[in-house]
Design brief:
- Helix content is about 20%, strand content about 30%.
- Helix 7 packs antiparallel against helix 8.
Length: about 260
């Protein structure tokens, strides 16, 4: 299934000067004032993060904090094991962030294992607050999103693939049924709508800088994740996050990408 859906081999790509990570390795498989409550919108989150500076990083990929802040394009707030977290997407990477020290990651070892601690970076502000930023690989991202979306019951707008404004997750089976009703406007030549729709098992709603919702999708037997943008300006297609297909659902125009999350 994974090869039928993806079809494109992965290899390391040279990094841009403004990339979040200095080295790319493709992975196949705030203080107490309320970083989470009330939730900060993405533009405000960037302003908040800009007040911090990098203290140290254990990330062998060469984490650049300033580029990380600038490159954030999607956000999802979750609470797992009593820890309030943010899952953030940059152009080619996914990160887990939270206020406090990296030791909090130990409470999530049952979900994501112990390896993320070896990729953790720590930033601080002038008032002594700390933020931990941990790069995720594809397996860890899927595990977090799967745990956060368990028993998802978010709704869709009537006659649309768009989630309701309050939805943080939607039911994968319902989403797959709607996706199956789409027409394929164009594709990479290997995309199989029926197979893709049946394989969906995680659907999380992320928010961009305009507060528009888009979907991050996990699949059965496929360690990649996919992004589906509906009636919004989608990011430019590139080799690291290739466009898979353009779809149509009633009046909705959709663009599907595979996110080769760096791990």
């Amino acid at each position: 299934m994974a090869q039928d859906i993806k079809g494109i081999p992965r290899k390391a790509k040279p990094r841009d000067c403004d990339a979040t990570l200095s080295f790319g390795v493709n992975e196949p498989k705030l203080d107490e004032i309320g970083f989470i409550s009330p939730p900060l919108k993405l533009y405000a989150l960037k302003e908040h993060l800009s007040r911090f500076s990098l203290v140290n990083s254990a990330d062998s990929a060469g984490f650049n904090f300033e580029n990380f802040v600038r490159n954030i394009r999607g956000i999802k707030y979750v609470e797992l094991e009593g820890v309030e977290l943010e899952v953030l997407f940059t152009r080619t990477s996914a990160f887990l962030t939270f206020h406090g020290l990296p030791g909090k990651l130990k409470s999530l070892e049952n979900l994501i294992g112990h390896e993320p601690l070896s990729r953790a970076s720590l930033a601080s502000s002038k008032d002594g607050s700390f933020i931990t930023i941990c790069r995720l690989n594809g397996r860890e991202l899927r595990a977090l999103l799967g745990a956060a979306s368990r028993n998802a019951s978010g709704t869709f707008m009537s006659g649309s693939l768009l989630p309701s404004e309050s939805a943080m997750d939607v039911d994968p089976a319902e989403f797959g049924d709607k996706l199956r009703q789409c027409s394929v406007v164009s594709s990479d030549g290997q995309f199989d709508l029926e197979a893709f729709s049946k394989a969906v098992n995680i659907v999380s709603v992320f928010r961009d800088e305009q507060e528009a919702g888009y979907f991050v999708i996990g699949m059965k037997d496929d360690e990649a994740v996919y992004s589906l943008y509906v009636n919004v300006h989608a990011p430019s297609a590139n080799e690291q996050n290739p466009m898979i297909a353009r779809l149509k659902y009633n009046n909705d125009s959709c663009t599907l990408f595979r996110d080769d999350v760096i791990g």
